Amino acid sequence: MALRSLPLLVLVGVALRESCLGASSHSMKYFYSSISEPSQGQPHFVVVGYVDGHIFTSYNSNTQRNQPRVSWMEKVGKEDPQYWDRNTQRSRDSEEVFRGDLETLRLRYNQSEGLHTWQWMYGCELQADGSKGGFMQHGYDGRTFITFDKERLTWVAPVPQAQITQRKWDAIPGLNEGQKAYLEEECIEWLEKYLSYGKETLLRTEPPEVTMSSKTEMEDGMETHICRLDGFYPREIEASWMRDGEVWLQDTRRGAVAPNSDGTFYTTLSIQIDPKERGRYRCHVEHDGLQEPLDVALKEPKSNLGIIIGFVVAGLVLLGVIVVGILVFVKRCHGYKKAPTSEKGSDIQGKTPVV
Question: Which of 88, 147, 281, 299 could serve as 66's disulfide partner, Cβ 3.0–4.6 Å?
C-alpha cells in the first residue's frame, strides 16, 4: 500500500520543495504524473499547477477536465471563454502520450509489468531583482530521467536509458528553441497574469508571529531554545540565531518552511546553549511583512517542579476515579439480572514528444 502511494508523495514533495529565492519572488510550476497500475479509484494520470506554492488548477484521468482550484481563476474563463477547453485538450493529449511512454520505458529498462511512474516537471521563476529562471525535467520511477539545458539548447541524459530520448528530442526541429521560449517568455507572461488575478492572495503580506520556548536537558544541564515563526506570507523568510550580534550556526537546527491550512506558513529554529551564555543570543527575523527586523531574546526555562507536581496530582485524581469506578461496578454486578436477548496560447505546455 505504501508503495502505491509513492507517486503522489513524490509529486507533492517536489511541489512543496520551493527554493528560497529572496523577498517577493514568484513562480509558476506544473507537475504531471502517470502511474502504470493505480490503486482502485486512483487516477492513472494527474496534472497539478502551482503559483507560489498554491494549487490553482488541476486535471486527472477520472474527471477528464482541467478545473480551477482557487476562486480567482474564474476571471480567466471570463476573459477567455475557450481557456478551460483548450487546456483540457492539451492535458488529454499528454495523458495519451504518457500512457505509451510508460510501456516504452518499461521495455527499455527490461522490466516486468508492475508499478511504474513517469513524471514531467517544468516551470518559471520571477525573482525580486527582475531576473528570470526556468526548468524542465522528466523522472522515471522516482529518479531523474532527462533534463533540459535551456542555455545550451540540449537535453541532458544522466542514465544510459535516456540517451535514446536525448538524441531523438535534440533532432526534432524547433523543439528545444520552443521550450526555451516558453520558459523564458510565455510562462513568465502567464505568471504575471495570474499574479494580477490573485493579487489579494498572492501579493499580500502577513508578518510572522514569533514565540519562544525553552527547556533544560536533565542529562547535561544544557538549554534548548526554540524560536517558532508562524502565520507569515509570502513564504520567503530570513531567520537566524545571533550571538553577540553575529550570525551563529553552531548547535542550531532549522525546520522546514511548511504551509498552514489558511495559506500562511510556519517554521522553527532551535539552538542548544550553555545557560550561562543565554543573554548573548537572539532570534533574528527578517520578512516582507515586518517594517523592520526583529531580535527576540531567549527566555529562562520554567522550572519542572510545577509540571512534576501537576502530574502527581493528576495521577492521584485518576487513581481516585478508578477506585470509585471499581466500587460502582462491583455494586452493580451484585444486583445484575440477565436481560432478554436483542487554440490560443496556453499557460501549460502542449503535448510532450514521446520518449
Answer: 88
